[in-house]
Amino acid sequence: AGNMVVESTPSEDGGVSAKLDGVYGNENTTIDSEEGESAPSGEVENGKITIDLSTQDGTSTTPASLEVTKTAAESLDNASGLTVKSDVGSVSLPKEALQKVADAKSAVTISIKKENSITDENEKVEAAYTVEVKDADYNNLLPETADDNGTITITVEKPAGVSDNFQFWYVDKSKGSLLYLEKLTSTKTEDGKMAVQIGHLSTIV
Which of 136, 141, 150, 152 has fewest C-beta within 10 Å? Predict the structure, then answer.
């Protein structure tokens, strides 16, 4: 068995920020966390790690990031999944993605934020999300150029007032106007949220 610890760290962007340290051993690994209502917490079930960074105020725009130390990242080679939950939504990395995290030469940061500044003159953008998995040199560990990232699942609230036939897209926003590159599969979850599947990380609208 292993032992890990998740603890709050200062956030630069007014969001929720935490650090995961220690060693994942097997399904019996325990995760120690701080006391308190909105303190980050963690658990392991069937080899899948869940870190909950949700706050109690219920705002769905608080960005969240989890730093996984180099020691912890290396040990994730044995885990079958890692989910980071937040007010914005949750991101679930499969085993294939965790093997890339484990190969990183430094600490790895997993972040999810809701973008409020994205606009497009042609399409009505109801909501946009950016999820990143980066090492200390800001390299994207799960780039679109790779086909071995596994299927990443991003679960978010269905935007209010949107009809049921809306579509999630993977977009490139680097050119100023949005380039719609790939339609994404999405399914409704039991609690009415939307689970979106993607094979790499970038901005989703």
Answer: 136
Q: Which residues pair with 41 in a beta bridge?
A: 52
Task: Give the pLDDT of residue 68.
Answer: 96
Question: In sequence order, what DSSP letters do the residues of the chain get, joined into one string?
Answer: --EEEEEE---SSSSEEEEEEEE--STT-EEEE--STTS-EEEEETTEEEEE---SS--TT--EEEEE-HHHHHHGGG-SEEEEE-SSEEEEEEHHHHHHHHT-SS-EEEEEEEESS---SSS----EEEEEEEETT--BSS-TT-S-S--EEEEEPPPTT--TT---EEEE-TTSSPEEEEE-EEEE-TTS-EEEEESS-SEE-
Residue 107's pLDDT is what?
Answer: 96
Fill in the DSSP letter of residue 73. H
Positions in the chain short of pLDDT 70: 56-59
What is the Cα Rg of the chain in Å?
17
Position 3, amino acid: N
Distance CA 101, CA 173 (A): 25
Q: Find residue 51's DSSP bridge partners.
A: 42, 84
| Per-residue pLDDT tens over the stretch 178-201 | 888 999 999 888 888 899 999 998
Residue 165 has what pLDDT? 73
- Write the CB contacts of 172 (distance below 8 Å, at least 6 apart in sequence): 178, 179, 181, 202, 203
